[in-house]
Every structure is written in structure tokens, then in C-alpha cells.
Amino acid sequence: MLPRLSYITSLYFDQGDVQHLYELLLRYNAFPAAIKQYLQFVLVDDCSVDSILIPSQINMNIKLLRITNNIAWNQPGAKNLGVTLAPTSKILLTDIDHYITPELMLMLLESPEPYHQIYIFERENEAGEKIKNHRNTFFTSKSVFFKSLGYDEQFCGNYGHDDSMFFLLQQYLGAKILYFNKEYSIQYLEYAERHHSLKRDNSINNKLYKANKAFLSMGKDPLLCHSRLFLNFKWEIVEERFYQP
Predict the structure, then answer these.
(1) How high does pLDDT run on average in the chain?
(2) Mean pLDDT, range 194-200, rounded to an integer
(3) 69-79 burial by CB neighbour count: b if 16+ within 10 A, else e?
(4) Residue 128, phi then psi, degrees to nearest 5
(5) Which residues have C-beta within 8 Å of that of residue 220, sequence separation ≥ 6?
(6) Among 126, 119, 144, which residue's Cα sits nearest to residue 23?
(7) pLDDT in tens, 28-58
(8) Among the listed residues 118, 116, 58, the one whose alpha carbon sits nearest the alpha carbon of residue 93
(9) Distances in Å between the alpha carbon of 99 and those of 66, 120, 221?
(10) What are the beta bridge partners of residue 118?
């Protein structure tokens, strides 16, 4: 069966422990076959210090990519790479500290392809309590994603505001930011340990974001604020595996 939805996430580990990733993959591996056969997982290893491999017991459509240039905070580039190599028109971008339930995943599989929409989600912690939403997790189509030329990779190398810039530019280009079914939440996994040691200093990207926001308010072509940097690094396919009934 051909996949209908691509689950895309970027990874960076430098703390000597990738167990959280493997535990998450095993949770998805336990999904019913009726879901797994139509899902494509695209994992983008953003030049981790720690070795990342797909556990042998994983039976899913899964592709592991690795960026070989060590660029700090390269999530915009990793997301662009993941979406580019995703084989489906419908895409779900998320982080590894979030879990999508089988019920919600099935709804996404059965949902029509978004043509003008980017869907965000309600969010809850592991105790089932509602918490603030998380724009790193969203459901849309490749065509909508690339209306803004993807993420702007001029935000790579420094922390913050890459998601804010992506959503702002999408809105100026006419995309509608909507909640998916509010009866279903994504789950935030409250890991006891952080999986990387990168410093969260958004001062540089904050200035860049404010400058682009000011430009957009002038009424000119919104795409003129995009740097056109795209896949500005080397990468390789580490492994590709296909679901076996």
C-alpha cells in the first residue's frame, strides 16, 4: 500500500542517550496495521553527535536521513529536507517530545488534503491536562508548505523565530491557520533529561524576525523577505525500510 501521510521530525542528540527516540518509535510501531501501512516516517538526523539507527524490530515505512554539515539550530533546513523527500502530499511535522495517538493519526490519514490550510493542535501533558499549543507540530500539504518557499534557512545557526517567520509569511500568502479537531490533542512527553546541550539565545534571530515583520507590513511582495536559502548543506540517506504485512 502506498503511504497517504508523511510524519516528519528532525533529531539532534549529543547527550549520549537516544533511548527516548527509540521508545517513541516503538509506540508508533505498536499501531494497528490499518494505520501503519499508510504512514511514512521521515526522520532527519541534524548531524547528531550520538549515533542514531532504526531499531531492528521496527516494522514501518521509515526513512532515516542525516545532515552531514554541523550547523547549530538547523531545524529549518532539516524540515525543508524532510518535506522535500516525503513521498506524500499530506504532511505532519512534529518534534520527538510529542506523541500522536492512533485515533488522531487515523483522522489525519482520512482527512482531505489541505489546499489553503495549516492545522495546529490542542495539546496536553502526560496527565491529560491541557497546556499551551505548540506550533512546531502542524498538519498541511506539501503545496501549502512550499508556497512560502519552505522554511527560511537564514534562521539556521541561531535559536528561535524560524517557526514564527514561517507562519507569518504563510498568513501573508493567504494560508489559514486553524485548529484541527479540538476533541483530540497531541501529547507532550515530559522527558526528564534534555537530549541536547544547545544554548537557547534568540537575540540574533529576534532582530531578523522583527526586520522581516516590518518589511511585510509595507505591503510589498511577501516572498521578497525570504532569503532563498534552501537545503544549504550536504545530506545522505542512512536507511530506508518498508512496512511488511
Answers:
(1) 95
(2) 77
(3) eebebbbbbbb
(4) 85, 10
(5) none
(6) 126
(7) 999 999 999 999 999 999 999 999 999 999 9
(8) 118
(9) 22, 14, 37
(10) 177
The burial class, CB within 10 Å (0-12 / 13-18 / 19+), for 45 is buried
Distance of alpha carbon 49 from alpha carbon 16, whole angstroms: 8
What are the backbone angles phi and psi of residue 240, rounded to the nearest 5°? Answer: -135, 130
Q: Cβ–Cβ contacts within 10 Å for residue 22, how many?
A: 17
Residue 192, pLDDT score: 42
CA 114 centroid distance within chain: 17
Assigned C-alpha cell, 190: 515530559
pLDDT at 1: 82
C-alpha cell at 144: 501549502
First to last CA, the chain: 10
C-alpha cell at 169: 509569511
Burial class (CB in 10 A: 0-12, 13-18, 19+), 141: buried
Q: For residue 225, which phi and psi values (nearest 5 degrees)?
A: -90, -5
What Å distances lie between residue 27 and 2, 30, 32, 36, 113, CA to CA?
Answer: 22, 5, 11, 11, 26
